[in-house]
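Hi R.,

As promised, here are both runs. First protein below:
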Amino acid sequence: MKEDGFSPLLHANIERMKLMLGYSSDFIVRELILPGNKKTAIFYLDGMVDKKELQDSVISALLDRTPEEPVTLQELKDHVLDAGEVCVTRTLEAALEQLFSGSLFIMMDGVVDGLSIALPGWNDRAITESKTQSVVRGPQDSFTETLRTNTTLVRRRIKDTRIRIVSLKVGKMTKTDVAVMYMDTLADEKQVRRLIGRLQACKQDRVLEGEYLEEFLHEKKQLTIFPTMYNTDRPDTIAAGIMEGKIAIFVDGTPFVMLTPALFVDFIQSAEDYYQRPLYSNLIRLLRYVALAICLLAPSVYIALTTFHQDMLPTQLLLSLATQREGVPLPAFIEAMLMEGTFEILREAGIRMPRTIGQAVSIVGTIVIGQAAVEASIVSAAMVIIVSITAISSFVIPAYAMSIPIRIIRFAFMVLSASFGVYGLTIGIIVLVVHLCHLRSAGIPYLSPSAPFHASQQSDAIFRMPYWKSTKGQTKQGRSS
């Protein structure tokens, strides 16, 4: 017997598998005597297989045999078992992997091989509306925690023979199922091979969500807080990305799918941009960029102007601000940090609290704390307005992954403005732009196609052109490279 192979003695294989699983109570062994006095055992994990299918498609089929009929593994595989996916398994490691994936395992006495039958029976979450990127018009379905369901949702939208899916298992302990989906002839072959190679080389013990792989696949030479992979739970967004030549990474157990390469403009665009008229979509996109600037710069500009550059403000506005700040003991910078920090606490509290009270607490808490702070002369009313519009603007950014680094950089800009005024803020903006220009996602410049700029490749960059004006066969990745 090989070290990882099976023994011809059935009872030895049963004992060995029980020992490997620590005599776990959910490991079930169903022993049968088939026609011809053939001892057989069925192994499965309770709760991982469909018991009705087990009874109807396996046990009944095995026992409904006449004594004259031959009983061999090949006979069972070819003529007896009517399950959809049946394969021969020759090693203990492969058999255990099949058990953990929702399969059952059949062995016979005197045979060193076994049959794995895929009969997954766990409960899946139903396909529901996206909770992170909702739209008014467009598909309302979203991914679930089941990998095969997610790949099917994309295949429903792309009925093309060029779709390729490469399946892998990542994680020494979790052995998580990972699928790489791309479209042949559109995706860059070098990027696909490089991505699959890095996944195969992943030595992590556990992979419970896409972030485990995202950090591993991240360009190690790039130190940045900006996301270089796009995450979404919308099947239409992933399908559109694949048809643009991008590569999708599905991880079993999470409803979020990663898309690479991911450019800066991808995080500002929304799926609904493509389901509305171009004029409306472009106005909304312009509004998002304005909201992005407000979210990033509003508190910093207010601190710089009120602290160092009062002469840049109109007289009436300056007098109004001076009147509001009369009696406020804190400088503008401390005011802003206090209010921004309070709002971040309220934001996190609203997310972590039960949904029935979370939204009410966050809204009421914001109003009550803001009004009380103004009445107590701790902060000025203008600062409350600035912080409020900044917070609201952060929710306009469609991708939550992009709003996080913007919020972090906002605090850094506030420190620069309090220290050096507009001069420090300008230096900060220049450093930020240079950093973004330096970033790459899967080898493609992060600010593509704006930097480097290509006039002929702007049909869906900052603004979306009408479909009838778009260049035939043009893709974002093609424009960006």
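And here is the second one, sequence first, then its structure tokens:
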Amino acid sequence: MGRHSHTAVDRPRSVPKLLGWTLLGALVPGVGLIAGGRRRIGAFVLTVTLGLVGLGVYVGLTRRQEVLAAAVVPSRLLITSVTIGALALLWIVVIVASHRSLRPATGGAGRRALGAAFVGVLCFAIAAPAAIAVQNVMAQRDLVQDVFVAQGESKSATRPKTVNIKDPWEDRPRLNLLLLGGDDAPSRVGVRTDTVIVASIDTRTGNTALISMPRQLTFMPFPKDSPLYRKYPNGFGKEGLSLEGRLEWMLTAMYENVPAAHPGILGPSDNEGADVLKQSVGEATGLKIDYYLQVNLTGFPELVNALGGITVNVNERVAMGGVSSAHIPPKEWIEPGPKQHLDGRHALWFARGRYNADDDQRQIRQRCTIKAMVDAADPATLVTKYKAIAKAGQHLLRTDIPQEILPALVTLALKVKSGTVSNINLDVSKLRMKYLHPDYEGMREAIAAALEAPTPPAKTTPKTPAKSSPKSTPANTPKPPTQNLVDACAYQPEGTQPS
């Protein structure tokens, strides 16, 4: 009798009070059980809840890098997904148990139905986000496993043989990545790497220098200790060819033609073309290329769309199609303008548009596209659209970066995000880059000097800059060896527009 009286006093009888305590018990697990008379279990649940919240706040404030590093370890991602599911299930159990302990021993069918419906809504509010979180975590796990292969499971003829997993950059002041872009579509015969960029990252500061290699370079060299040096002691090229005949001996053709002529010459490899380019581009630039990251440009629009598009300054009309040599004009253009938001299709043409544009213009646009994608990958976008981004990444990327160094690479990426991205300008005329035999020794010296120089700060660009005229800005005015991409990608239209 005494127990019944205690319950009658403590348990809320009215519908508003019942639903209110149920909601509070859902927001602060344990409170509803305590109010319903189950004080011991309620106190335990409340203590665990407060402990988990406190732990989450502590980790979020002091262990952010460790959390991000764990996001690229497949085993930890699996544990995370199971943990999210288990916590969501336990939360739902607590909500149901709280409502049952709060509900009066007697009550009409309507009151019971209303309470059950309210509990169902609360449970759905927990289950739906948890399911989305688990899907995103598993999408990340699939991306890591599909794109990044473990050091001992993949075949690479050129990447570092031994790696200090705890600190891969311990004896490496710079990390040099080779960024490749090509149309390796099922409907296309052969692969041409129209985009070849070296990203040299200062592992201490995250400051990054981009070096664009013109696709028409010939007689690309190989290091003397490479088996390919014996085949091409003077570089990949051939004398006495017509301009059209040189196409098969340019940098853009090496990815396909060298492995076709000498299959397996570098040893076991998952991507012979990339290994060939790592050796040759490394020798041409004087940099030891550590890893490559290859982008399938036919899948590029999918990734840009997953990011929600990119924002760029368009300084000149950019053709969407057209063939200059055949005098076939494009049907569409991207018109000049500041801060233009481009979807995937327009972003691809912005980076690749070739009609009446030289390689220098395309290289600048490609570097600005990379910068725009880095800027677009903000935390809010990654959280809300990550499943689509991860799916696009699976279709888009190939690399020889091993899984083992991904945690350290994530930490370095945070430095890159907050660091400075600059461009190393190569003097095309002085280095004879459009001639049959470019000055690769001069290229190495120019790159070494630029990397040793301090990174230039970004300038404040006026909101409405005046157009430059040929008189005020001579075409032959030399560019600085390094240029901050904030400046290079600013809105500053000048010169004549393609037509």
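A quick note on the second one: The domain at 174-455+480-489 is CATH 3.40.630.190 (Aminopeptidase). Let me know what you think.

Best,
J.
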